[in-house]
Structure formats: C-alpha cells, structure tokens
Amino acid sequence: MKMSYANVAAVCVVLVLLLGKAQVSMGVTCNALQLSPCASAITSSTPPSPLCCSKLKEQRPCLCNYVKDPNLQKLVNSPNARKVASICGSPFPNC
C-alpha cells in the first residue's frame, strides 16, 4: 500500500512541476517595443542581431496581435519581418 501512495505522490509532483512550467512559458508580456532591436533588420537588409532573434522568439506568441494592430501591421507583416523571423529560426505564426 505504501508503494502506491508513493507513486501517486510522485505523479502529483511531476504534474505540479509541468503545470508550473507551462504557466511560466505562457506568461509572455506582449510589448512591441521589445522588438526594437529588430528595427534595422526589418527596415533594411541588415542581418538580425542575436538580441533581435532572442526578442523575436520571446515575443512570437504576440505576433498575431501585432499584425492585427493597424499601427504595427505594415511593419510586422512585411516580407522583411518574415525573412528576419525565418533567419532567426522562429517562423512567423499563421494568424
């Protein structure tokens, strides 16, 4: 009997850890200004910096919201923005 309680307890601990990790990964604060390191790469042929790629990956869950924003739409939905996302290894989501 003790063994089954230990197994149940272990499963509960694993579930708590996994759920906690999922909540952390979903806790992105959407802020388009975080993409400012990508401005030169998006507006010119300059390759994206490592900081740009890092911020782009961090803000990826927010990109569809940015595309819907009339103030950001032209910049975020441009061919260069998609090219930068591809170079950074963070494909643009299908919105």
UniProtKB/TrEMBL annotation:
Alphabetized Gene3D superfamilies for the sequence: Plant lipid-transfer and hydrophobic proteins
Domain Bifunctional inhibitor/plant lipid transfer protein/seed storage helical span(s) in chain numbering: 30-95
GO biological process: lipid transport
InterPro entries, alphabetized: Bifun_inhib/LTP/seed_sf, Bifunc_inhib/LTP/seed_store, nsLTP2
Keyword GTP-binding applies: no
Keywords: Lipid-binding, Signal, Transport
Signal peptide: 1-27
Top-rank taxon, per record: Eukaryota
Molecular-function GO terms, alphabetical: lipid binding
CDD domains from the UniProt entry: nsLTP2
Protein name per the record: Bifunctional inhibitor/lipid-transfer protein/seed storage 2S albumin superfamily protein, putative
Source organism: Theobroma cacao
